[in-house]
Amino acid sequence: MAVTIKFVDSLEEIKGIKRLHDLNLKKNLTPEEQKEQGFVTFEYTLEFLQTIHKVYPSVIAVDEGEVVGYALVVTPESKKLHPLITAFVAQLSTVFYNGKAVYDSSYCLVGQLCVSKTHTGQGLVQRMYNAYRDEHASHYDYLVTDVDSQNPRSLKAHLKTGFQVIGSLEHQDSRWDVVLWDWKQ
What we know:
Elements: E1 4-7, H1 11-23, H2 31-37, H3 46-55, E2 59-63, E3 66-74, H4 83-91, E4 96-97, E5 100-101, E6 107-115, H5 124-136, E7 142-148, H6 152-161, E8 164-171, E9 174-182
Helix pairs in contact: 1-3, 5-6
């Protein structure tokens, strides 16, 4: 059966995101696994995931009923629902694109991206991001996120999709590449 890309519409799917999230947290992976398959850094609770999905559902990849990928949708309405996202948004006033601070632009965020190690290399990042763009490009000019500089696999996937590195930030003792996908190009 083919992997389906869709927007979250049930608590079971949110729980599936949480399961995949927990399996791929940097702290739960060996250094070898981090390098080979990438990782997610920020920890999100089930309650937080339920809250952001009430604002706007995220994009998921589903294979035979199992969530095997996700891209968390963070719209302007949900930017203040988690302290790490709030801090990132505040720092966007120091990052510029086309001569304008990203903070002052029309954008939405990726709160986190993850693909199961059993499904990497199948184009799911691009498919999920294309669904994200198709849903939101009429409302926003850009999709923005940050990628831990210690996660080159994630950066490569973002660049392949159409993102470009527009700056870097220091956060939680790490350097983060700020990446932007210009939907108006």
